[in-house]
Amino acid sequence: MTVTAAFADQQAAPRPGARTPTLRNYVMCPPEHFAVEYVINPWMDPDEPVDVAVAMRQWRELKETYERLGHAVSVVPAQPGLPDMVFAANSGTVVGGRVLGSRFRAEQRAAEAEHFRRWFGENGYREIVMPARINEAEGDFAWTGGLLLAGTGFRTDPEAHAEAQEALGVPVVSLRLVDARYYHLDTALFVLEQGAHPQIAYYPEAFSPGSRRVLQRLFPDAVIADAADASCLGLNGVSDGRNVVLPLEATGLAEQLRARGYEPIHVDVSELRKSGGGPKCCTMELHG
Fold it and tell me: What is the domain-level CATH number for residue 160?
């Protein structure tokens, strides 16, 4: 599909009727070694205590929420010395059976990429590309079903967007992030519904003026989040097309979603947020 064709699809009227969930395949990694030992985003403060038991409980509740909704969850074993490995979304982008691995900007996270590459190989994936450019996977890549929305500005190199297009064989739309609090695309935007008429939610102030105009043209009916929803990482949500898993505090966003026929499901990620993560950060999706 060309970008032009995908753009035309997204100008068509939304589908009528009730929202329909689709079963998803997720990959997660438990926060057994979770800690805030360094600072690589504005959310992290090594002087603020972290409770690993609470982080584990919140992670289990998130995983059980997905399973209760009927989704499959695969678990990659946690590794000592990698406290941010719980944020599985940053370690791979999978579309149509093809895998683009990750290459982290922060030295402290670099080793995570190989553990996930090995997991993909052990689980039947044969088309695996490890990137030459800095690429923090689904942290900065969001699949709409026709386009790969790609963030840059703080972590992923802009050149990695072209690399993703070659590796995955899908059209890519580049978006520039401008607020360091929203250092990854998945902290400022998420896909509510994939397919011919995709729907997204996003926080406009996290993006450059040009990127805002791109989003307005591609998604004129998008859900627009406010500063309060963004500041609790409310845009770090996970949707199956009907059920939308959100941080507990994202109440305004939840009301907007409910008015559009989605079913918000709140989870507590307060401990994981100490490292700048929420539901989506903990969740890699294996897109068919």
Answer: 3.75.10.10
